[in-house]
Amino acid sequence: MKLPLCFLIPILLTGCQAPAQIKWPAFSGGKVSLITGVEAEQRFKISEHLGTMELHGKPAKVKVALIEGKEIQMAKLLDIEWGKLCHILIINGNLKVDSLISLTGGLPDLLVLGNLEAPFFYCGDSHQRITGTANIKYVIVGGGNDGSLKIDGRSSVPYIISMDHDIGVNAPDAEWFDWNEGTMNELVRDVYNPVKDQLDSEKLAELVQAGKSIKRSAKRDLSFKGIWKDWLKLYGRDSTALYFESFTSFLEQENVLLSMDYMDGYDLPAEIFELDHLEELNCMHVQLKSLPPAIQQCKKLKKLNLAFCKLESIPKEVGYLPELEELWLSGNPLKELPESIFELKKLTMLVLDAGPFDKEEQKQIQKRLPKTAVLFY
To answer: What would the mean pLDDT of 199-223 be, rounded to a whole number?
Structure first.
């Protein structure tokens, strides 16, 4: 069947329409074009600068936004805007961002073939490479273990926060807080909660813009009340203790579970040993100078976690806990165990570091605790 000409004309016109023009986020100082990964590799050696081309698929299908100009300026650079349009963003020139760079969602990767200037630089699972210098007024934050940030030139930045992130930056004047090195715990609790592994970016920005330190003060309230307030900041309403109207009422409960993990910088307050119904005490990563002999007062204690507390010795009083079932001592440079531990009748699990004990000593410990699962790490 032949269609009349009046029907064919609209169809032909529709087929000849140009593709819709891309609406790029606002910037000034240059021109933008969309090129393929093949062209980007030929012109800019993406594989050498970023090494991420293969992450985005076949080069011919990889979308690369190229902005060329001597001085490119943006109000902000956000992944939620650029990540919808391209896999990789190349700035062929210097880049100045007035407010915030936030590339935390995986796309796009960023290559700046020049210098960078911005107040804040937040990066996540995407990859960034700056071939020149970087002047970041307040802070660089790297979060997520699949991303990376490399800056070839010297960087000027007061703070760098690396949450398990690959950051290669020459910033001799910066103060670093690194998850892998355990220094994230030095951040003020309003900014970082180590229990939930959460960083409050808004509070961070508020403090650094006001010129206030984001590092916790060495002068801290070491009273039980002060520790309790810090506990509130760490655990919030997730802590079982906080369902009670007051801490006094909590102490009167039975089957008490007390967790002080990651609350580094404290010794155990004496009040803990007055908890008649304490059944579980978790002190993991609390950098204790020593474990007080008063621990023997906790007669109902079933589980004691002292992992990574940097303890060089364990007091004999730990062996005077008649109900103790689990004892975690890994991550401590222990040279020996007190003889009293081998008298713990209900001990079902003992966790130690393998390093301080040779094979023969490990066999002897297990032999002397035949009813206990002794684990060496």
So the answer is: 89
Backbone phi and psi for residue 342, each to the nearest 5 degrees, phi listed first: -75, -5
Structurally, the chain folds into a number of domains equal to: 2
Q: Which domain holds residue 168?
A: 24-209
Q: Are 40 and 58 in contact (CB under 8 A)?
A: no
Last residue of a domain, one of 177, 209, 241: 209
Both 53 and 166 in one domain: the answer is yes
Tell me if the pTM is above 0.85: no
In this structure, the answer to whether residues 193 and 241 fall within a common structural domain is: no
- SS3 string, 35-85, reads EEHHHHHHHHCHHHHCCCHHHHCCHHHCEEEEEEEEEEEEEEEEHHHHCCC
Which DSSP string do the residues of 274-342 spell out, in sequence order?
A: G-TTEEEEE-TT---S---GGGGG-TT--EEE-TTS--S---GGGGG-TT--EEE-TTS--S---GGGG
CA–CA distance from 191 to each of 57, 146, 157, 162, 236 (Å)? 37, 23, 18, 14, 14
Domain termination residue (choose one: 209, 239, 269) = 209
- pLDDT band for position 13 (cuts 50, 70, 90): very low
Residue 56: other Cβ atoms inside 10 A: 19
Q: What is the mean pLDDT of residues 286-301?
A: 87
Structure tokens given for 15: 């087929």
Considering the domain architecture, whether residues 237 and 276 belong to the same structural domain is answered as yes
Q: Is residue 18 part of a domain?
A: no
DSSP class of 261: T
367 and 339 part of one domain: yes
